[in-house]
Specification:
9% of the residues lie in helices and 34% in strands. It contains one helix and five strands, in the order E-H-E-E-E-E. A hairpin with a 5-residue loop joins strand 2 and strand 3.
Length: 86
């Protein structure tokens, strides 16, 4: 999130939406083909980042289909591989 840029994003093509609360987690997702949709401050005064992905989510290790799991405190995330490689 070091630079501002704008591009058109067709919301009909969005495959995944994720919300994280940590700046570092948002940066990691941005470097992995996610797009920042919104930033807001929640009721507790903490920042929240909403990110979108238009391409299918794949495991970073074996490239199999994957899901994303965000921790309860929204500070970290992990990919859950459909082949259970990680």
């Amino acid at each position: 999130m070091d630079s501002d840029c704008e591009f058109d994003l067709d919301l009909h093509k969005v495959k995944k939406v994720v919300e994280v609360g940590a700046f570092q987690a948002a940066n990691e997702l941005l470097s992995d083909d996610w797009a920042l949709h919104d930033v807001y401050v929640d009721m507790d005064g903490r920042s929240a980042y909403i990110l979108l992905r238009t391409s299918p989510l794949v495991c970073p290790r074996c490239k199999a289909p994957a899901e994303i799991e965000v921790s309860e405190d929204r500070e970290s995330f992990r990919y859950v591989c459909s082949r259970e490689c990680a």
